[in-house]
Amino acid sequence: MAASPGQPSPGAARGPLDGSRHPLAPARPPRTTATDLRLVPAALASWGTAWWLTAADARAALAGTVLVAGVLVYAGSWLLVTSRTRRSSHHSTRRSSRRAAGRAWLGQCVLVTGCVLAVLAAGSVHLVARDAGGAAVLAARGAAVEVVGKVVAESVTVANPWSGAVDTVRTTLTLSAVQGRGAAAPAGGHLDVLADLTWGDVAYGSEVRASGTLAPADAGDKATATLVATGPPLVTAPPVTPLRAVNALRADLLTVSEGLPTDARALLPGVAVGDTSRIDDELDAALRTTGLTHVTAVSGGHFAIVVATVTALCAVARAPRGVRLAVTGTVMAGFVLLVHPDPSVLRAAAMGVVGLVGIGLGRPSRALPALAAVVVVLLVLDPWLARSYGFVLSSVATAALVVGTQPVARRLAPWIGKVPAFALAVPLTAQLACAPVLVLLDPSVATYAVPANLVAAPALFPATVLGVLATLVAPWFPGGATVLAWPAGLAAWWIAAVARSFAGLPGARVPWPGGPGGAVALALVTLVALVLVWRWRWVAGLVGWRVAWSRGSGWPHTWRTAVRAGLREAFAARRRRATMRLVAAWAVAAGVAACCVLLAWPRWIAPVGRDVPADWVVAACDVGQGDGLVVRTGDGRGLAIDVGPAGDAAGTCLDELGIERLDLLVLTHFHADHVGGLAAVLDGREVDRALVTGLGDPAEQAGWVLSDLADRGIPVEVAAAGVGGVLGDVSWEVLQAGEGDRATRGTDGRLTVAEADGGANDASVTLLVTTPALSLVALGDLELPGQESLDRTLRARAGGAAVDVVKVAHHGSRVQSPGLAATLSPAVAIVSSGENTYGHPTDEALDLYRGAGAAILRTDRCGTFALVERAGELAVAGCAQG
């Protein structure tokens, strides 16, 4: 009898009534969830739009908004029409599939365009509001102003590059009013402030009134301008009550941690609440070298720890879901206030929540679109985040964690176990993803970042949690806070010890090409390495190694047996299986690896720069924000002009150039960015003679420089115009030396220069150096009067004054003489500068020397580079971009 409709046939297998799989049915493959990438294009497009928008003016932003709005209306209308057509018509299955795919692409375009429009519209409002007060116009005129604003950033001390003293503070205000050039108006936007140390005592969130001179901000900066304050601020209103309480909590944490060991005392406030005021330069450098700076910069990891702790406590208390959400949200908001609600903190909070949820649930298919949505929302709220390296690193690291942690952990688990695999997967995926971005900040690779993070990770949780608890307890129970601070401090000490230990290992930082090219190269190398590791079975087959175990099984059973039987038997068995093909394959692989080391990474063996030849003529040392120039006078000999700021950069440069003896050391003037590295230069090499300016400004700097030279027995002379000499086949001449010889010598023969307060820049020793290959003029830090005086002197010289190379005055500052640039008419202009808050080098200086026909070479982009002569033409080695 036939079965009735809806009933199974008599012979059909009957499944369980609960709908589960029948025991005899074949096993189905596990379900896999595809990662949802639909919001990723919208996030990337929003990012690019915000990048462009922040460097555009309000008119261009409004025009772009109107254009994109028109595109969105058109695309949305077309999508609506195609959707209605689908409902009202019938087509073949193939045609329907094609139309469905077209509608999907059209919908994606509408989504991307809508997000871009949101960023443009919000950004246009930001730009209009920022420019409404006229601060940018006043800054363009260099106006003296009086401003009113609220402090919205922690003050950071800055070392003065001229004196070497830490006497400057950098902070940020949100402008509410500005008065200058006889007019007062309300203002908006942010204002960077450079001021004296009295600003460091102003509480976060205070409203202040201050006077100073406005300087223009760089294109793309969030700040409208930079205020160089002329005195202490006047506090017109204290912080609001919540911020006053937060400031008191942070101050009390510093008090209760005062008795901790040095590194613990410095690092604990940074780990707990992001206060880095106690971290010295040495510890900071170690943290950077080992990739551990995230422990003090409030990051998504801090918020993940806080959320995880609160969630665990709520679970132990068996709180209902609504209570858990309310408690977690309240704690997160309080933690944001505790570490100060800067945009970077809000960004870290959002990224931390997304990363924690994605990793904890193992659902990258949902976490990734959530991350993309967070990126779009944050860019709408603050489009300047698109230019923030912190935002880039935070986004990239979070994406890597939510997408890559689980696959990497699954691949490692059979080899090292589940818990170690997960612990290793987190820092590994984050470091691999962030390394190309970090190269843009520092052209090197942190070799031990992954093991350092792995070893330091166990201490981060107790240091953060106990540090925050100590902060909360400190105001009302200092004794209890001290008890909590000690174990937290020990955890912080462990992190510092890990940083110092790994930073001290050989090769802790491997040089790498900088700039976008270096970032792309590192990304490609990382991608190739991941493919090789992921497909290692295929790679093993190429070298003749037959893999006898299945995927995911971990170490083979034969290996385990061999280990139990003893290493000798294992190696004997391995030798018996060896063949000539395997030996040859490994020999080829070793040869290829050796060639890669010797050819692909020449900076490992020649840190001076890429392909710098042995017959270099002039080398510009990358000493940061300072000067360090070397002219070769013979094998292992040179003439050095300035030695850069404090540190060993100039000494290392001379070592790498092979300079063992300085025939002449010229110190153009006594500012710290020109003489700070003297000790490193003098150590380990002989100096025949030193030439200095006759003006002792600053007096303290001049005193210790002359004392150090005298203690080492180096003859010192004061430069005077017309003095010169010959060193091998190199001649030199002093063109200008400020006010002349104002020095005296004591009975012991020690030189003392006349003290002065100001005028050091125009007292710079200006040197003309002539080699068989080129002529060079080093201008020191000459200001406009000094440059104009030199221009008059050079134009009066017989035979012309044009030279091949000019070391541009004052790191490429805005103050440059067009007449001097035209008189010198160089083929190459060297600009020695590094990270700074002065805007060096300025577009005005670069455009001036480009207009004079010079090729611009900058140490802040090239690093250390050298000039050589090839077939009668000047060439540069070690610099891919100027």
Q: Please report the total strand number as a whole number.
A: 29
| CATH C-level label of the largest domain | Alpha Beta
Computed CA radius of gyration, to the nearest angstrom: 33 Å
| Rounded average pLDDT | 79
| Total count of domains | 5
Structural category is alpha/beta
Uncertain runs? 1-32, 599-611
Q: Could you describe the largest sheet, including whether it forms a barrel?
A: 9 strands, mixed
User: Per DSSP, what share of the residues sits in E-state strands of 2 or more residues?
Assistant: 15-25%
CATH topology of the largest domain: Metallo-beta-lactamase, Chain A
CATH superfamily (homologous) name of the largest domain: Ribonuclease Z/Hydroxyacylglutathione hydrolase-like
Distance between the termini: 90 Å
Figure out the total of helices.
29
CATH 2nd-level architecture of the largest domain: 4-Layer Sandwich
Q: What coarse outline follows from CA principal-axis ratios?
A: globular
Relative helix content = 40-55%
